[in-house]
Amino acid sequence: MMPRSLAGLPGAALALFVALSSLPLPFHASLVCAPSGQKTVLRLQFATQPAVACDMQALERLSPREIVTTLPPALGMPGKSRWRGVSLRQLVALLGGNERHQIELTAMNDYSVRIPWSDLVEYDPILAYRRDQQPINIRDKGPLILIYPFDRHPRLQKQDYVNRTIWQVNALSVR
Length: 175
Description:
This protein is of the alpha+beta class and 175 residues long. The protein is 27% helix and 30% strand. It has helices at 4-7, 11-21, 25-32, 56-61, 88-94, 117-122, 159-164; strands at 40-46, 52-55, 64-70, 80-87, 103-107, 112-115, 126-131, 134-135, 145-147, 169-174.
């Protein structure tokens, strides 16, 4: 059975949708991060496909989300802040990822963490690129930081989630 959202499409549009959705991942990743000539801030890789470079403009074009939260003291960023970024779940889904895939984020210093799909569903963390309306520079653990909604979910105060709050993220791999 065809979803209602597709049922109303004219035949040609439906055929185009079906054709585009069956293309290999690099096509999808390049839609997420169309080349603009700007500096790469994030490499996106799905399975065994080649990595795609993503710049800040491309990330900012995706539906932004905000989380207002106080990070655990161990992260060294005191006070309540308004974090703005892209939902990690949305980004993984745009790449074709789902609950069957492993999600790994890597930082500039090669530190990496695996993020379970259950975190994306339950907490919907964001890859933040702004803190209190300001871009996050490298000195301040940017340009991308994975932020969980710590204030909304007290159970996130565990060390596992502190460890997953990776900063200076420069690669996302979905396998």
